[in-house]
Amino acid sequence: MKLQNPITIRPAVPADAHTIHDIQMRAFAEEGRLGETTQIPPLMEDFAALEEDIRTQTVLTARDGDRIVGSARGILDGSECMIHRVSVEPSYQGRGIGVALVRAVEDAHPNVVRFTLTTNTLVPGNVAFYERRGYHVTELTKHGDKIVLARMAKNCVK
């Protein structure tokens, strides 16, 4: 699919919750398939949790014109920010949208000391994607029979 417009990054509003949730379900479906489970947090999240994040945290959307094609969250905890639920519409993946979303979350939090995230090592390229952005693995945790989660961090130079 060719992009019709330049991708723009904008803050989410409550009315975006259903679209963000739908994209998240499609984007994380491959992770669930690889792990042979739907019992992973992004696939179990309900609208209430997403709407609460939109009201209280940084939730950004990537848009192709008016169409939402991805989202990411920044969950602030003191001097740290957890990058959370980076998801891109499957037909738009591989076009730099995830990179733009991660960068936008980081840019939205210029005063944090450290960014953290968790990613599934079963999905090819996940860890390398974040390593190219300056993140490093700080911990590996087994989650069920097949899934190994990589906790990653990036310290900010102040």
CATH C-level class of one domain is: Alpha Beta
Helix content: 25-40%
What ranges have pLDDT less than 50 throughout 5 or more consecutive residues? none
Going by helix content, strand content and strand pairing, the class is alpha+beta
Largest sheet: 7 strands, mixed
Radius of gyration: 15 Å
Q: Please tally the helical runs, counting DSSP H or I stretches of 4 or more residues.
A: 5
Strand proportion, as a percent range, falls in 35-45%
Can you give the mean pLDDT? 91
CATH topology of one domain: Aminopeptidase
Termini gap: 40 Å
Principal-axis shape equals globular
Strand/helix succession: EHHHEEEHEHEE
Strand order of the largest sheet: 1-2-3-4-5-7-6
Fold blueprint:
Blueprint: E1 7-11, H1 17-35, H2 41-44, H3 47-56, E2 58-64, E3 67-77, E4 80-88, H4 97-107, E5 114-120, H5 126-131, E6 136-143, E7 147-155
Parallel strand pairs: 4-5
Antiparallel strand pairs: 1-2, 2-3, 3-4, 5-7, 6-7
